[in-house]
Amino acid sequence: MKSFKSWRSKSSCGNILWECGDGKVSGSKGLRIKTIPSLGILTVLMLFLIAMTMKEQYEQTRAEGRWQPFDSAKNSNLTASNHRKYLSKNLQEEWRITDQLNTDNKKGIESLPRGIVQETSDLELKPLWRNSRIKDTGKQHRNLMAMTIGIKQKANVNLIVQKFLSANFSIILFHYDGNVDGWNDLEWSRKTVHIGAQNQTKWWFAKRFLHPAVVSVYDYIFIWDEDLGVENFHPGRYLRIMKAEGLEISQPALDPKSSEIHHRITIRNKTRRVHRRLYNLRGSTNCSATSIGPPCTGWVEGMAPVFTRAAWQCAWHLIQNDLIHGWGMDMKLGYCAQGDHTKNVGVIDSEYIVHQGLQSLGGPSANKSSVAVSPSQRSVTKAASEVDPRSEIRRQSVAELTIFRRRWQRAVEEDKNWVDPFEDLRKKKSHLYKKSHRRPK
Ligand SMILES: *[C@@H]1O[C@H](CO)[C@@H](O)[C@H](O)[C@H]1NC(C)=O
Ligand SMILES: *[C@@H]1O[C@H](CO)[C@@H](O)[C@H](O)[C@H]1NC(C)=O
Ligand SMILES: *[C@@H]1O[C@H](CO)[C@@H](O)[C@H](O)[C@H]1NC(C)=O
Ligand SMILES: *[C@@H]1O[C@H](CO)[C@@H](O)[C@H](O)[C@H]1NC(C)=O
Ligand SMILES: *[C@@H]1O[C@H](CO)[C@@H](O)[C@H](O)[C@H]1NC(C)=O
Ligand SMILES: *[C@@H]1O[C@H](CO)[C@@H](O)[C@H](O)[C@H]1NC(C)=O
User: Fold this and answer.
1) For 87, which DSSP code?
2) Does the C-beta of 364 come closer than 6 Å to ligand 5?
3) Ligand 4 centroid to 282 CA: how many Å?
4) Any idea what the Cα angle at residue 79 is, between residues 77 and 82, rounded to 5°?
5) Most confident of 125-129, 271-275, 420-424
6) What is the pLDDT of residues 356-377, one digit of tens each?
7) Beta strand 345-355 pairing with 228-229
8) Any ligand 3 atom below 6 A from CB of 365
């Protein structure tokens, strides 16, 4: 995988200072329509309807053209041309345009001498000049912690960041409340990258700022929520286990004392170092040794996932640009396990966390017993008097889940080359099961 080679730039400038605006939309004071009021309203209404219809169609088209052959094409056996053969007619035109764009992009690179091309990047702060105050410590940051945070969780985030900094992680913080300055008093604040965008979710940030090419120097990528207690968690030990167990995607187990547990597979088993499946023969989820997928095996939840470089490259592509709550995506993460998801995805028990379920997001009505919005899908809509933001968020999340499932289904139908690795495993397992249970004649 050529594109993953860590090309560390030795250039001395290029301090990364990313800060987004505060997201405020200025009022449209300049616009005034003088006409008979009722007619005016009708016109505006019609225009609005037309605009919405056009937007819907646009989104639809965009969604259909979501397969992006950027760097992914290089790493897979799927070339743009053999993929296109199988696309339905109405997508052909879209692909023609996409192909053209890619050819144009390549043309741009081909005009450079090969040795100067650097496809990858990192998130390290660099000194403005060699002997400037910010010293290039020469530390080898091999792992990245990305956290979506708000100022209300400052105390806990401080604990988490300190722990990861002492393990030589690179830190990038996504501020969903746009409050970046509120962290300046913390000593480590100037050593980390801050990105502020109001009311945005963790998957929104991840899609935009953790492109695989941008984080390609890091071996492991943590994408965590802010309300996790790390008292019994050591990043270094955790990674040693993850490596030794050959896990591509993992999460630390949740202390059973956690106030929020959504899925039983995440609960810590005190007697183990790591577990990969749930055994549960009661209830609606019938999980046994022959189960091959979620919720029994092969997945982790969205609040504290850890990815290898390769798994993240895949997961990033799975995140839909427009579906910001990410519902349903965790169930498909197993497809990013770089092989058998029942082996390469796991929950690490010996390094575990407490899910505090502190809802600073969604405003004061946040109450886990009233609306069960998974915090990994949280957004930050502040209570606007009557509107309960959390139930609005939940409604939106469910709607996104439906869209995501439909897209997956359509993608599977359209890609005739695609073989479901889960299905392969199912066949193999049931075959083995039958074999071992066949009675000798
Ligand atoms: C690509 O797939 C074909 C069969 O579909 C296979 O014969 C070939 O070895 C594959 N190439 C690579 C590089 O994986
Ligand atoms: C962090 O990096 C420093 C400097 O390279 C090194 O001395 C230290 O041992 C590292 N700490 C850990 C926990 O890896
Ligand atoms: C914990 O792991 C042990 C050993 O594999 C197993 O026997 C036990 O049932 C597990 N406990 C739970 C609660 O899953
Ligand atoms: C659960 O699955 C096992 C085998 O996969 C089966 O024997 C058992 O009857 C199932 N239990 C329920 C409640 O469906
Ligand atoms: C949460 O809801 C429960 C019952 O619905 C109520 O008793 C409790 O006071 C609520 N807590 C907060 C912080 O609103
Ligand atoms: C976004 O968040 C800010 C504060 O963080 C809040 O004042 C504002 O009402 C929110 N806007 C929306 C549309 O949720």
Assistant:
1) S
2) no
3) 8
4) 110
5) 271-275
6) 887 655 444 344 433 334 444 4
7) antiparallel
8) no
Closest CA to 228 of 192, 258, 194: 258
Q: How many Cβ atoms sit within 10 Å of the Cβ of residue 300?
A: 25
Q: Which of 370, 371, 391 to mutate to test the pocket of ligand 5 (most atoms within 8 A of CB)?
A: 370
Answer whether residue 200 is part of any domain.
no
User: Which is more confidently placed, 40 or 166?
Assistant: 166
DSSP single-letter state for residue 361: T
- Residue 426: how many other CB atoms lie within 10 Å: 15
Q: Which protein residue has the closest C-alpha to ligand 6 atom 12?
A: 381
Q: Whose CA is nearest to atom 14 of ligand 3?
A: 269
Position 106 in a domain = yes
Could you tell me if the CB of 38 is within 6 A of ligand 3? no
Model pLDDT, residue 320: 96
| Residue type present at position 305 | P
| Range of the structural domain that residue 93 is part of | 36-110
Which two structure tokens, joined as six digits, stand for 235? 């990043």
β partners of residue 345: 249
Token pair listed for 44: 């505006």
pLDDT tens digits for range 16-39:
222 223 333 333 334 444 445 566
Provide the domain count of the chain. 1
**CA dist 234 to 23, 187, 250, 268, 269, Å?**
36, 21, 14, 15, 17
Query: What pLDDT shows up at residue 94?
Result: 58
In a domain, 1, yes or no: no
- Is residue 87 in a domain? yes
Residue 13 contacts residue 124 (beta carbons within 8 Å): no
